[in-house]
Each structure stands twice: as C-alpha cells, then as structure tokens.
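Researcher: Here's the sequence for the chain we discussed earlier.
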Amino acid sequence: QVAVRPIAGIRSSYLMLSVCYLVAVFVSLFVTSATGLGLLLMVTMYPIMRNLGISPASACGVIVTSQSFEIGPTQTNAIFAAGQSGLDPTSYFVDHQIWLVLPMVAVTMVLHFFWQRFCDRRDGWDPAAHRGDAAELDEKKAGEVPAPTWYALLPIIPFVLMMTFSKLLVSDIRMSVEVAMLVSVFAGMLCELLRSRDVRTSLAGFSSFLDGMGKVFGPVVALIVCAEFFAESLKAIGAIDTLLHSADKAGIGSGLMTLVMVGLIVVASVIMGSGNAAFLSFSTLAPAVAAKFGVPAVTMLLPMQLASSIGRTVSPIAAVIIACSGIAKISPFVVVRRTVVPMAGALTTALVLNYLLF
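Model: Thanks. This is the structure I predict for it:
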C-alpha cells in the first residue's frame, strides 16, 4: 500500500500501466514469491488501475510479470545459480544479474505500454469509457489487523543487510541469506513486542514464520533432491558426454550451446508452470557444459535463471497467472497473450546483453 500510494494520482491510463510495472518490480526485490506478490498487488495496485479504465487483462499482464526476472540476492533461483557459479549471491546480483536486468526492465516497460494498448484497441476496449470502474475482487480484507505504516520497512531489512555486508560496503564481514532472514524475523518480533506489549502476540508471529517456512522448504528441498538425482542420472547414462561430443563435432560454440540450454529451460517452465522446478532440473548440468567450452559457468547460468522465471510468466498453468486471472475473472490464456510479447522482448534482451557483456 505504501509503494502504490504515490502513483494513485497519475491520470494517463497507459502511463500509469508502465509506472505500475516499475513499482511492482521494485516491490519484487523484497517479496520473493511470485504468487504472493501477485496476490498482494491484486488487492492494492489492481483496483487503482481498474479505476483509471485499464482493462482487467492489461492490469493482470503487468502484475504477473512483476516477478518475471527473480531479481536480487534473496531469490531462490538466484541463490542456487550463484552457488553453481561459485559466487556468493550478492556478487552474482551486483556483478552480473543487474547489468542484464535493468535493460530488461526498461524494454519490458516500453513493450507493456504499446502491447497492452494494441491488445485493448483490438478488443475494442476504450480506457476513457471505463474510468471509475470497480475492481472484480473476490477477496475482502476483512480480518486484517491494521499495522503501522513504518512496518513496510521490515521486508527491506534482508536486502539491505546483504548489500551492506558484502564487497560493496563492509567487505570484512559477509552475511549469508539465512542470517539476514533470521535477523529480519527477530527485528519484526521485537517491533511487534514493543507495539503490542504482549509476548504471546510476538511469539505468535514467529510461529507463523515457522509454519510458512515449513510449507516452502518441503517442495524446495524435494525439487533440489530430484534435480540432483536427475542430473546425476543423465551423467551416469552418458547423456551429457554425448551432448557435448555432438556439439563439439557440429562446431557449436558456447553461445549457441547457451541458447540450447535456455530453450530447454523455457519449454520446461511453460510445461511445468514453475520456474524453480525447471531451473533446478537443468542448472546442475551447466557447470560441466561451461567447463567443456572453457567459459565461466555464470555465463550460462545467468540467462538460464532469467529464462526460467520468464517461461513461468507465459505458462497458463503457473500459480501466479491462475490466481490473478481468477480474481480478475478472465481466462489464464488471455493473461498469457498479454505477457508473451513483453517477455519475448525481455528474453531477447537478456541473451544479447549476456553475449556482449560476458
């Protein structure tokens, strides 16, 4: 709500659409779940866009692409890619990821402006005729407990800690993701204790954190175990050696091989509806492939990591697309038609810049 409030006064519909995308990407640095961020934006930003006459499809198209690059050192795939590359998450973010992501965000923002306007005109949607429309929200905010406005700063703590205690600022002390997250949790507990003057209320918040952590760890750990098993199985049957040998005989270079790996990731993400599942399945193969071609592993893993979340954003079975389209009462396939062109532009930008820079 704090992030959305400054943009509420913009009156140009498609300019508002572009600015909303930038705000959503900024919030994605601190809210690392695509579905969680999508639902958060659907109850805060979506009503504002609908009130300005923006179509439900355009609004959903912008919202579901907000987490399409998994930016920052606290994202699951980024952390795993950094580990496979032999880098710490902060170095991966600052030295490599941000140089691709910033132009990708700019390209996506411009494409959203023109593509959503084109689609709306093709569908006969006139924003001026729909100004003042109410949002089609199923979920009510009943039962929410009002929190102080400055609580909005709490999710920013892990990002700030990891950027501060890195080679950027305080190089003598390095902070891991786990420590940064736990420091943030205890900071939140302390704030709630001081606000409520009730130990039980503070501890109840910690209980919610543990419950949520357990729900997330189960699937993630299972995915990592399955991914390692999958990768080792491919190596054991000689599939990787055959692939590398075939590439060597065909004269395929590291650039073309990167395109092949990215293509596999995108197809897998669309089919699975999950960027994590697709990336974890193939990312463990990248270091061996990169070593064969004599290039740093990060030059393959970076576009693969970005492609995994981009592929999820054009999958009609992705949780974030199903959830947001359900609230907006439109088909997931309608939302995918609104995301495919901006995401194609972003992926092309990533591949070109990765080749030129790294």
